[in-house]
Amino acid sequence: MKTLALFAVTALAEIVGCYLPWLWLRQQGSAWLLLPAAASLALFAWLLTLHPTASGRVYAAYGGVYVCVALLWLWRVDGIAPTRWDLLGAGLCLLGMGVIMTATRAGAA
Question: Is the pLDDT reported for residue 107 higher than 60?
């Protein structure tokens, strides 16, 4: 559960770090948005280093959580409800993440 929460915070940091420059470039937001965006992306990179397993495996498993957090962002920030296909895809991503993380902990080859 701790790993899942860490992945969720990591995903949020990455999404914020990408969303703020999007606001600046596409929505004529202030260039000052780039400062918190850079800080958020630095936080994202640092959070990925907190996992004890191999980086490639962490990135692969993290991707499943990222998809779910991005869909939550779509719903809460962009105001667009995810479709059942979005939810099915997110569920499949989480299933894949579970396989990767469970096999890692079990010591499977």
Answer: no
